[in-house]
Design goal:
about 180 residues; mainly alpha; Multidrug-efflux Transporter Regulator, Chain: A, Domain 2; two-stranded antiparallel sheet; 11 helices
């Protein structure tokens, strides 16, 4: 049995700090591996101990993660290395804005299909018409590639069927699915 030292009395272990923040032990250990959150010290039995300073740092980390910032951006923000906080947050905002625009373009494509639901079922839509619909919905070439990649990732068999329904050759389907 380990008897807590005075130093450990006001500190938390990995499990305790994880529980306090509602995150997993694995996440805490990952943050340590990424050098985002280091324990204040390790006891002789190998326990990691976290104090007030580490708790405040973890509060910042979890806040930034909730905003969708990457671990590397959080590291830069916390260590104030390189880019300023303002620049990192502006870059993240712009990335989110691009993602929102892509999602809006996808919504528009779905609306087009909802307004003309028979398009796919009746095989009226061929590759050229589908590309026209996507462009009309605001998709760029890059957006279309991402759309196919996501479709392939999430539903590969349905993606194959969809491409076949557009009358695309097997050779071209293979190229599209490999994007």
């Amino acid at each position: 049995m380990h008897i807590r030292s005075n130093k450990e009395a006001c500190m938390l272990t990995v499990t305790q700090i994880a529980k306090q923040f509602g995150i997993s032990r694995t996440t805490i250990l990952y943050y340590e591996k990424e050098e985002l959150l280091m324990p204040a010290y390790r006891s002789g039995n190998g326990y990691r101990w976290y104090g007030d300073k580490e708790i405040k740092r973890l509060e910042a980390i979890t806040s930034y993660r909730s905003y969708g910032l990457s671990v590397s951006s959080i590291r830069s923000l916390l260590d104030r290395k390189g880019e300023s906080q303002t620049q990192i947050l502006k870059d993240h905002f712009n990335k989110l804005e691009r993602e929102i625009q892509n999602l809006r373009a996808q919504q528009k494509a779905v609306v087009v299909l909802l307004q003309e639901p028979g398009l796919l079922e009746e095989s009226i839509v061929n590759k050229e018409r589908w590309v026209e619909i996507m462009v009309a919905a605001g998709f760029t070439e890059t957006n279309m590639i991402k759309w196919h990649q996501k479709f392939e990732e999430l539903e590969p068999e349905e993606h194959q069927k969809f491409l076949k329904s557009l009358g695309i050759s097997d050779e071209e389907i293979t190229k599209i699915r490999a994007l």
